[in-house]
Amino acid sequence: MTAVTGPDGRARCAWAAGPLYAAYHDDEWGVPLHGDRALLEKLTLEGFQSGLSWIIILRKRPEFRAAFAGFEPEAVAAFGEDDVARLLADAGIVRNRQKIEAAIDNARAVAAMRARDGEGALDRLVWSFQPAAQAEHVPPADATDIPAVTSASKALAKALKREGLRFVGPTTMYALMQSAGLVDDHVAGCWRSEP
Question: pTM for the full model?
Answer without folding.
Answer: 0.94
